[in-house]
């Protein structure tokens, strides 16, 4: 990606800000997840369950919506998270790495490899009553994964971070498709038609040159409500609205940049940590952890995330390079690819999200979450080990080169 063109420079700055926020947000996400686990295993564990089960009604009369607090976070606030994901997908498709077919081919194929193999491993290992959770290990948590790479600082080349982000974004596109297509029980066609109509109104407002933001917000809320009532998961509305956001200047403002600049910090520092606090509270007491570790569901998820991503992404990249249909970013070596592939196995946020959609049985949900914790932690440790090994190899190769140059000068 060049930076001499003003548009490319703007895209580069936006990408740098996005990566910075994701890395910092990953730290907050870890703290929120740890807090949830501590709360759920403390003497106040009953309060954890009671708090998130508390119902809240918004609106009145026939327009009232009643959800418990956990579902307000999962259905409501997470729509904002997916809206920001939609914005970044749109940016990458129009002005970023995904606009270049050759540059996009490798991360796209890598993401497909990291999508298919985890699902296959899960289906091969999971018990019959848990097969609906095949989508759990296919996801990548951008905040956690980018945060792991950020911890290593300059020892990880910028190209590796870009590769991870691009793979994760393509991964998100597929995960969103899975949520919409496979985790929707019934569809109310009238409400779904209303949601589509609302998206049409957004397009019409753009065509009419409306530059004020508030009409889009009102229509966006209406689209969210219609999607929620339709039976399709309401977060899909956030993605659709993000993809409809223009990438050019409207009324003298870069709308996508404006939304992302204002909403991305809210997403990573508030919405996602709240989601972790509401969903990561797994009760490990009374032998529950030992029971979960002995379950094939736990290992179907964990090995899907760890082995499925490392092998799936790694083999897909190797095939792309071997056939010449893709190329690695500058400065990225094979060991970096494996480190990135392992980081893609950190599936925390979206994996937790899908586990709640896949199962009605609370026991299956809890067991799947143990698998998510296990697989994501092992993937993070493996990623750090591989990337540190790559950095040491580069340092050794650099020292050898300098020694050879010095010897040449002396002779």
From TrEMBL:
It is a multi-pass membrane protein. This is Na(+)/H(+) antiporter NhaA. The chain crosses the membrane at residues 23-42, 106-125, 131-153, 162-182, 188-205, 217-243, 263-284, 296-318, 338-358, 370-391. Pfam families: Na_H_antiport_1. GO terms for cellular component: plasma membrane. It is found in: Cell inner membrane; Cell membrane. GO terms for biological process: regulation of pH. PANTHER family: NA(+)_H(+) ANTIPORTER NHAA (PTHR30341:SF0), SODIUM ION/PROTON ANTIPORTER NHAA-RELATED (PTHR30341). It catalyses: Na(+)(in) + 2 H(+)(out) = Na(+)(out) + 2 H(+)(in). Na(+)/H(+) antiporter that extrudes sodium in exchange for external protons. Its main location: membrane. Belongs to the NhaA Na(+)/H(+) (TC 2.A.33) antiporter family. The keyword Ion transport applies. GO terms for molecular function: sodium:proton antiporter activity.
């Amino acid at each position: 990606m060049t930076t001499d063109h003003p548009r490319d420079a703007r895209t580069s700055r936006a990408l740098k800000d996005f990566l910075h926020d994701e890395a910092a947000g990953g730290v907050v996400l870890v703290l929120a997840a740890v807090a949830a686990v501590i709360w759920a295993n403390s003497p106040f564990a009953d309060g954890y369950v009671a708090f998130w089960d508390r119902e809240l009604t918004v609106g009145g009369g026939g327009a009232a919506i009643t959800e418990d607090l956990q579902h307000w976070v999962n259905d409501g606030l997470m729509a904002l998270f997916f809206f920001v994901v939609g914005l970044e997908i749109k940016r990458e498709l129009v002005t970023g790495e995904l606009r270049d077919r050759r540059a996009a081919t490798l991360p796209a194929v890598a993401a497909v490899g990291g999508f298919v193999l985890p699902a296959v491993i899960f289906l091969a290992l999971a018990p019959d009553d848990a097969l609906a959770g095949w989508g759990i290990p296919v996801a990548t948590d951008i905040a956690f994964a980018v945060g792991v790479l950020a911890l290593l600082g300059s020892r990880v080349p910028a190209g590796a971070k870009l590769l991870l982000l691009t793979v994760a974004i393509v991964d998100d596109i597929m995960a969103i498709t899975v949520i919409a297509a496979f985790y929707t029980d019934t569809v109310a066609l009238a409400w779904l038609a209303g949601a589509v109509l609302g998206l049409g109104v957004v397009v019409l407002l753009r065509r009419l040159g409306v530059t004020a933001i508030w009409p889009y917000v009102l229509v966006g809320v209406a689209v969210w409500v219609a999607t929620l009532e339709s039976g399709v998961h309401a977060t899909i509305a956030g993605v659709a609205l993000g993809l409809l956001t223009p990438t050019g200047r409207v009324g003298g403002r870069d709308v996508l940049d404006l939304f992302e600049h204002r909403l991305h910090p809210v997403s990573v520092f508030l919405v996602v940590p709240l989601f972790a606090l509401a969903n990561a509270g797994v009760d490990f007491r009374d032998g529950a952890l030992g029971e979960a570790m002995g379950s094939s569901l736990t290992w179907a998820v964990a090995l899907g995330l760890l082995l499925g991503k490392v092998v799936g992404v790694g083999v897909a990249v190797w095939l792309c390079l071997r056939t010449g249909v893709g190329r690695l970013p500058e400065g990225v070596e094979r060991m970096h690819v494996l480190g990135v592939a392992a980081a893609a196995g950190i599936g925390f946020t979206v994996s937790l999200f899908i586990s709640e959609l896949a199962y009605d049985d609370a026991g299956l949900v809890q067991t799947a979450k143990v698998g998510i914790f296990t697989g994501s932690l092992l993937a993070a440790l493996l990623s750090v080990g591989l990337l540190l090994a790559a950095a040491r190899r580069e340092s050794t190769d650099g020292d050898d080169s300098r020694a050879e140059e010095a010897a040449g000068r002396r002779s």
